[in-house]
Design a protein that fits this description.
2 domains; binds S-adenosylmethionine; 33% helix; Rossmann fold; Spermidine Synthase, Chain: A, domain 2; 13 strands; seven-stranded mixed sheet; single chain; 282 residues; alpha/beta; 10 helices
């Protein structure tokens, strides 16, 4: 009899992925952590039954949340990651030699310890990189109190249930803005608008109060079902979103980074929003 992992993210929609080999299933201090192998998706990490990342398509999500804001910024030296316990975001950010320091604030040490051991293909050497400053703390408390300053802030959190709920508030975004250097950019994981429109609408309502340029961009990540996923974008420098494809190409080539989803053309196209999503962020 096959075993299945059932994602219960929505009241009337449940997604099941067959478990070909269960590797781990336990509770940390904050959430239930499960890892299993799937023929289609490779290793799959779920937190409280919600898919966090899979070996097969993590490159899409991590490339679009790391390279897009860093290449738009053009001179990002200090990067903040809130969440990102699997190490995949840090791994992608640290590919940029121009990045001097990454501060990663993750609430659950169990996710980090677990990912180092069971998800080496996602985190690779990120946790051993001397530029990484791993802080085990609530991201909301960290940004409220830190005197560190950042050029790019990436909010790679779970969905707004449980410990991540606080990371979808105006107070949190206001504190992130406080920590951004001039010309800084915030990018946020904002779910699949077709199924989680309230999250996106809420984030953009806050961003419109806080940033001169507030919008979102899209990428389709197969395991986040329901259509394209949205990433919140906030910056006080409106020119950053207008960077030309030619300049982005020069910056990507100079970085020497090989990508499988991100390209400068995809970068520019990601901001082309269909009317049903434009209506959510008015
Ligand atoms: N790619 C995933 C997604 O799109 O949902 C997110 C991946 S990552 C595993 C999410 C991380 O956010 C988890 O490790 C979780 O522990 C962390 N997290 C949740 N709430 C947090 C908070 N308040 N402060 C810091 N980290 C938090």
């Amino acid at each position: 009899m096959d075993a299945w992992s059932e994602e219960v993210l929505h009241d009337d929609l449940r997604i099941k992925i067959r478990i070909d080999r269960l590797l781990f299933d336990s509770k940390t201090e904050h959430q239930r952590l499960m890892l299993f192998e799937s023929a289609t998706f490779g290793r799959v990490l779920t937190l409280d039954s919600v898919v966090q990342t899979t070996e097969s398509d993590e490159f899409i999500y991590h490339e679009m949340m790391a390279h897009l804001p860093i290449l738009a910024h053009g001179n990002a030296k200090h990067v903040l990651i809130v969440g990102g316990g699997d190490g995949g975001m840090a791994e992608e950010v640290l590919k940029h030699d121009s990045v001097e320091r990454v501060t990663m604030v993750e609430i659950d040490p169990g996710v980090v310890a677990f990912s180092k051991k069971y998800l080496p293909d996602i985190c690779k050497g990120a946790f051993d990189d001397a530029r990484l400053n791993l802080v085990i703390a609530d991201g909301a408390k960290f940004v409220a109190g830190t005197d560190e300053r950042f050029d790019v802030a990436i909010i790679d959190s779970t969905d707004p249930i449980g410990p991540a709920e606080v990371l979808f508030t105006e107070a949190f975004y206001g504190n992130v803005k406080r920590c951004l250097n001039a010309g800084g950019i915030i990018a946020t994981q904002n779910g699949v608008p077709f199924l989680q429109s309230d999250e996106l609408t809420g984030t953009l309502a806050a961003f419109r109060k806080l940033f001169r340029d507030a919008t979102c961009y899209l990428a389709t990540v197969p395991t986040y079902v329901g259509g394209p996923m949205a990433f919140g974008w906030g910056s006080d420098d409106e020119t950053l979103r207008q960077i030309s494809e030619e300049t982005l190409t020069e910056r990507l080539e100079a970085s020497g980074i090989e990508t499988r989803y991100y390209t400068p053309a995809v970068h520019k196209a990601a901001f082309a929003l269909p009317p049903y999503i434009q209506d959510m962020i008015r």
